[in-house]
Design brief:
Blueprint: H1 2-26, E1 52-56, H2 64-71, E2 77-84, E3 91-99, H3 102-112, E4 116-117, E5 120-121, E6 123-127, H4 149-157, H5 163-186
Antiparallel strand pairs: 1-3, 1-6, 2-3, 4-5
Length: 211
């Protein structure tokens, strides 16, 4: 009877030691303050779920329509946005593309990074979901219409000016003309500069009404 009890104790002790050893093998680290071994929590890589790509060094002429036609060979595209100057509307040479599948986004990032396109090496990186700005896609479907700077400059040039504004404009022209004349004389060039038409602007006459 005693032999049977001692054998059961040894078996129980051995199984306990084996379980503890297995726990230690499965654990990632032992705490310095003592105690049982611990295992780090399994964290899933957020990039595996990301569908948004940053694309840098975009060459001139490779805009929204061209990007969509090029990148749709990899898979379905949800959104495309190129950063543009608010005043001029010109491209800032970087943008963002959102694919429908994270697997496709990963393949594009691996394939197109440092890809030579129109003498530019594209810089393609995956943006984790937590780093995507909530206003990134604001106004992405808005039709972009470039500004007609010729019409704007024509309107500014042809606007009606007051007498003070016209005098200021003529004074600036005469000042630049005098500076140009001095440079020509300093260079030893004999040249008779033509007079500027309209430089002599008569002052407005004051009309006195009789009582």
């Amino acid at each position: 009877m005693k032999a049977k009890k001692s054998m059961m104790k040894r078996v129980k002790k051995g199984s306990t030691e084996l379980t503890a050893a297995r726990k230690d093998e499965a654990a990632d680290f032992l705490p310095l303050e003592g105690g049982p071994a611990r295992k780090l929590p399994i964290t899933e890589n957020s990039e595996n779920k990301s569908t948004v790509l940053y694309i840098g060094r975009i060459p001139h002429g490779f805009y929204e329509n061209e990007m969509e036609a090029f990148f749709k060979q990899f898979g379905e595209i949800r959104k495309i946005r190129i950063a543009r100057n608010r005043k001029t509307g010109k491209s800032k040479h970087f943008g963002f593309v959102q694919f429908a599948s994270p697997e496709v986004a990963k393949i594009v990032a691996e394939t197109m990074h440092n890809y030579l396109l129109f003498e530019h090496l594209l810089q393609v990186q995956i943006i984790p979901p937590e780093r995507v700005h909530p206003k990134l896609w604001k106004g992405v479907n808005r039709f972009y219409k470039p500004l007609d700077w010729v019409r704007i400059e024509r309107k500014r040039h042809n606007k009606e000016r007051t007498f003070e504004e016209h005098k200021k404009l003529v004074d600036g022209i005469l000042k630049r003309d005098q500076k140009r004349r001095r440079k020509i004389e300093a260079a030893g060039i004999e040249y008779e500069c033509p007079e500027i038409v309209g430089s002599d602007v008569p002052a407005p006459k004051k009309i006195k009404f009789e009582d």
